Amino acid sequence: MIHEIRANKTSFRPIRFTPGLNVVLADRAEDSSRKDTRNGLGKSTLIEIIHFCLGARVSRGRGLAVQALAEWTFTMEISLGDERITVTRAVAKPRNVRVSGLSKDWPGIPPIELTGERSFTQKEWRALLGKALFSLTTPEVPKYKPSFRSLISYFVRRGHHAFGDPFFYFRNQQTWDVQLHVALLLGLEWRHAVQWQKLKDRDKDLKNFRQLVDRGAVPHIRGSIGELEAERVTLLQEIEDSSRALDNFKVHPQYESIQQGANQLTEELHAATNANVLTARRLKLYQQAIESEEPPLAESIEQVYREMGVVFSETIQRSLAEAKEFYGLVVKDRRRFLKREIARLRRDMTETHAKIRELTEARADLLQILSEHGALKEMVKLRERHSVKCEELEHVKRQISHQRQMESDKREIARDRAELTDLATRDHEERRDTRDIPVRLFNLNSQALYRASGRLIINVTDSGFKFDIEISKSGSDGISKMKIFCFDLAILEFCTSRDLSIDFLVHDSEMYDGVDSRQRAAALERAREVTERTGTQYICALNSDMVPYDDFREGFNFDEHIRCRLTDGEASGTLLGIVFDPPAEP
Asked: Residue 40 has what DSSP assignment?
């Protein structure tokens, strides 16, 4: 329970709170003008101070961490169990929290200093508050665990977005955070929410990895299992072929010289064959020449000249006879030469044919050796190719294994999710008596505000706990705000029934903005009724024009619950007693 809030500056207006209903009212001063406003009087600043003293993080330029408040120190008196303690935290030194009045019965707390105080780090102070108010004993190691700061944010809602949904205290709150902390507040097994989130993380990681594989961003995994299996079969066949070739491979010690000899014989064989072709052509030419070689007849020559009218003398006729005889001798000599050449060419061709046969047989012998044996270099290359194929096969097998593992992981996640859902469903049923309490309390709260009671709905789905609230005619913003009011008041009373030490609930004026005056009146009356009956505390900030005096039931004295009046017009009427530009919403 919060007893008092004060500061180290005399301008600050200390506020003392009591059990039950406590109102901080922002009023309009008699001499204020139209330009004065009740915004900035300190209602939201009060919420910031409470969070500050309860270990909230501090960001420069936000909340209380502004230059105008650099020298300010805030103090809050609060009950932890049966002990009333004083908490002091300076804006300039937010990492240090000084606490007095705390007994030594709390394990692991810092020692008392000469000032009579204990000096906590921000982390140590949060841990103590978690134990004291919510009985948190979860170790710091797990990634997903209950957090004091998350839990307290449902009892001291801060900022505009905290009043948009009963189950969210800030706009970008993660699903697991909501499921875990709301489950804890409603008496459900919050560890199921942790397991659901871990499954979601596994599923997300698997999907992200699958997308990378499909885009080819993971070089060691490519293709589908079917494609990889086809590649595996092809590689197996290639490896079998290369293995068989290696088994049958014979290395000849003189393989290189034999190969050179075979190449030399091939060159000689080509030269002999080409020479024989040329010889055959020449032989054919000589044969044709000897067949057509005949001396001309003298009579034919004379006949030609006679037809031309030329008459030869006796002397000329004698010369023609001599020429004919000489040419006959030349023809005979040429025929003898051609016959000798023809005979020589035939001998050359016979010798060349024999040489070609010898070269062919010799080369065949060498080629036979080469075909039956191999060079050491060839065998090394063959072994290298065989090793490369074997490595490719192992790589493909690993890829198949990875692909099958991903498929197995996918099935395992689905199986684990189904098992977890079944376990959570059974546990949910076993806790029926416990979980019915906050549902009933919510119904009673909503009945106090509306003719028809609302419903707090708790479902177990395959993705975790699902929470919802239904109130008839809940389309307006005002009714949405009252959903939050009924829920918050229900969990305050439920936590008290579970012997948790959290016994206060704080709402800013945002809670009542846009709410029908009749529901505002009913909500304030319900808050007083519940807190007085349970010995708890409800603190709210209101603008004076929000007070529904005409709608309160007879006998309800609203003014007796006002703990502080803030006024506009002068700085002294504000909570801090000073005027400065309001900080950004944290």
From this structure: T
Q: What residues contact residue 391 under an 8 Å CB cut-off, 6+ apart?
A: none
Q: What share of the chain is helix, strand, coil (3-state, %, to 5)?
A: 55, 15, 30
Residue-level pLDDT at 194: 93
* pLDDT < 70 regions, the chain: 28-40, 138-141, 213-225, 242, 245-262, 293-328, 330, 363, 365-382, 386, 473-477, 580-586
> Do 49 and 74 touch, CB atoms closer than 8 A?
yes
Q: Please tell me the predicted confidence (pLDDT) of residue 316.
A: 64
77-84 long-range CB contacts below 8 Å, 24 or more apart? 77/2, 77/3, 77/4, 77/5, 78/1, 78/2, 78/3, 78/53, 79/1, 79/3, 79/501, 79/503, 80/128, 80/129, 80/132, 80/133, 80/501, 81/132, 81/501, 84/3
The set of residues, in sequence order, having a beta carbon less than 8 Å from that of 311 and lying 6+ positions away, is none
349 φ/ψ sector (left φ>0, alpha ψ -120 to 50, else beta): alpha
At a CB cut-off of 8 Å and minimum separation 6, what does 212 contact?
Answer: 218
Dihedral angle sign, alpha carbons of residues 113, 117, 123, 126? positive
Compute the distance between CA of residue 524 and CA of residue 528 in angstroms, rounded to an integer. 6
The Cα–Cα gap between 229 and 510 comes to 64
Three-state DSSP class for residue 86: strand
Q: Residue 31's pLDDT is what?
A: 44
Q: Per the structure block, which two tokens stand in for 322? A: 């001599």
Amino acid at 257: S
pLDDT for position 35:
37
pTM above 0.85, yes or no: no
pLDDT value, residue 354:
83
- 477's CB contacts (< 8 A; 6+ apart) are 514
Contact present, 68 and 121 (Cβ < 8 Å): no
pLDDT for the residue numbered 33: 42
